[in-house]
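ugh ok so i messed up the first submission bc i forgot one of the chains. this is the corrected input, ALL of the components this time, i swear. 645 residues overall. if the numbers dont match what u have on ur side tell me asap before i send this to the collaborators (the ones from the other lab, u know who)
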Amino acid sequence: MIAVSRTIEADVVIVGGGIGGAMAAIAAADGGAKRVVVLEKCHVRRSGSGATGNDHFSCYCPEVHGDDVEPILRELMGSLIGQAKDVELMRLHLQESFDIVKMWEEWGINMRPLGRWNFQGHALPGKPRVFLKFDGRKQKAVLAEQMKKRGVTVLNHHPVVELAKEDGRICGALALNASTPEPSFVLVKAPCVILSTGLTHRLYVNASTPNYLFNTAHCPNNAGGQALGWRIGASMVNMEIPYTHAGIKYLQRAGKATWIGVYRYPDGSPLGPFVTRPDPEYGDVTSDIWNSAFIDVMQNGRGPAYLDCSENTPETLAYMRRAMFDEGLSALIGYMDSKGIDPAKHAVEFTRYEPILHGRGLDVDKDGQTTVPGLYAAGDMVGNAGCGLGLAAWMGWRAGHAAAASAISAAGTTTGDLALNPGIRAKMELLSSFMERKEGADWQEANIALTQIMSDYANVGPYKVRSASLLNAGLSYLNQLRKETNASLKASCSHTLMRAAEVLDLFDCAECILRSALERKETRGSHKRSDFTFTNPLLADRMLDVTRRDDGTVVTSWREVRK
Amino acid sequence: MPPVIDRNKCVGCGTCADICNSNIFVFDRAKDSIPQVRFPEECWHCDSCVIDCPKGAITLRMPLSYTLLHVNADTLGREVNR
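and heres the new structure output, hopefully the right one now
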């Protein structure tokens, strides 16, 4: 058995030190929690999808937008990140997010690189713009410094592999110490846990480079964190509603709205009706509106589709280049420079990427509280108000304050020995068996097998369908894969053991997707059911919750969208 | 897009191994003078190691399969469409 190297008692534990997790930790400390612990898989200075920058922060700024938040809310709900979200939470996000913007500026993040509040991109011509352009290059370092100032304990290289409950309430987490090649376990007792592990990739065959699991638009290490909530009994929402990002081909990278250009067919005509010449104010929102644009043009033979920035002025191209650094695209710029790819001269092909869990996952209230007492969630792993930097920062802030208050009132309620908790014990034994096995399967085999099953049996429209028979077959194959994996996986060090634990989480995310997709008996967006080809108006304002009970059974329920 | 460490510039501070977004380095100070890129296929090409290396000793190498597809913009024939 892998040894337990450390046992810690905390008031609030945060799983993941990205944007949402860092803001949660800062808020929990400000909210009065004395012992705030961040368990981070990599390192808080550079972890998550915001590692090296971001340049769009969704917010409502009264001095720019005027006194009425509702028109801004309508734009946000119609945007890429507004799909299938609770209106009530998105409104609250807008109402409170500018305070966070000002706080970030005070802490030293450059929120006004042009010296003014500048809202650009991801927008329809003539409509209000919801996304503040800022310079996120220093965001992680600044947030790490703010955590340090408040005495937050950060354990880098400590991925969390399981949560624990006692009498129905969260009581702690099991982390893997991956800071040395030899793994050990760390047990953290706490009455409150905030999950903020980001979005989940590596569930489907990679659309750009099928043999490369880590060529992804966002951070590929955020793999399956939603499963921590799923296994402990939190309700999950929107898991069946597919999210597909788009961007450059074959190198995957998010940040399409940072490019200033026009999507064009090879004959030069624009794909969309929104812009015919590059426009820094709005960008080309075509692929936000027409999600399958880039694969449609390949299917109908009119493609490929290119983003053409060559009609920009030199000043606009220089501005775009600077914004790409702000967005954290320095590696892309370095690559393009080294290959002589110049947006002034070259048009770059775009494509749609594989489905991911982005803004799909835990169902939370306005404080980030999940359906399990003591368990909170923030950021891209949230199903009803996650997706993107602004929402992560805001929900992290609210969840941190709420968890601090809850931890203070719940002090002393976690009394049991975490090492004896059945779920924790079972996970420790399973992971230990992987390390003890001399011959067997590597984690990559299991991860790739999963992507094959998901791509064949739970893929997304418009060119792939789901049906009861396909989804049930997928569940059956997943179950077989899970059994074979548990019986044959091996790991040789803390790193490969961490990846093996991620695969187990990915399996649970896949099961939740399959079960959710079975229950949504209609076609909606890219959730295309061949056995229910219509979109049911009765489900238009409803969300599907799927929950795994403690006995392992799965229940589904529908609820109204919170307006 | 794995990092490539210039052995002549690297001073073995271990910053890259510490801050890597994907934990792809292993740096055993008892055995190695510089970090090893042990899991190159797990690199996310985030550039953190390049940015944070105090000696500018790291570059990223793009796998051939990640090739960024592009054409000369003049070939798009947009002049006739404007």
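quick check: Residues 494-519 of chain A form the longest helix (26 residues). that seems consistent at least. The longest strand of chain A covers residues 346-356.
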